[in-house]
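pasting for the record
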Amino acid sequence: MANEASQKKVINRLKTIKGHIAGIEKMIEEGKCCDDVLVQIAAVKSSINKVGVVILEEYAMNCLFDDEKEEMDKEQMEKIIKSILNYSK
C-alpha cells in the first residue's frame, strides 16, 4: 500500500479482527451460546469486508491515478476490473 495512513488504518483493523477471533475462540472454549458466537462471527466477516474495501480502493486509486503514467493501458484496466469482480464474489 502506497498511502501510509491507509496502511496504518488497515493494520489497526486487522489487529482488531485478530482480537475478535481470539474472543470467538474463547467463547467456544467456554461453551457460550451459539447465537452469541454467530453474532461475533458476523462482526468479524463485516470487518474483513471493510478491510478488503479499503485495500481495493487504495489499489484502484493508485492504478487509476498513477502520476507517472499518462494513460492506462487496456491490460491494466482489465486487471483492476478483475480484482474488483473477484473481491465482490
